[in-house]
Specification:
About 60% of the residues lie in helices and about 5% in strands. The chain has a single domain, classed as Winged helix-like DNA-binding domain superfamily/Winged helix DNA-binding domain (Arc Repressor Mutant, subunit A, Orthogonal Bundle), CATH 1.10.10. The two termini are about 25 Å apart. It has a two-stranded antiparallel sheet. It is mostly helical. It is globular and about 35 Å long.
Amino acid sequence: MEKLDEQAIDELLIWVISVDRRLVLMESMKKHNIIKASDIAHESNRSTQNISRALKEFEEKDLISCLTPEKTTWKKYVLTGKGKEILKKLEEKYL
């Protein structure tokens, strides 16, 4: 895993906090090691579609990884090393 520089970290932090569903996702990832969209939706009173969109965005940024990519529903996700680093910085600065 490549080490992120401070500018890359700051850009990702701003990207996360700029949209509520992303912040909700990070809050949930802080509480759970493995998570599904339906779990986050239930905990946060948001639609599964809203959370699924956030999960897709996080996967595109390599912040999370899908443990069950062969499934079409009930997929399980974990933070990547990069995602853990961003969560740690997010907690230090904003949470």
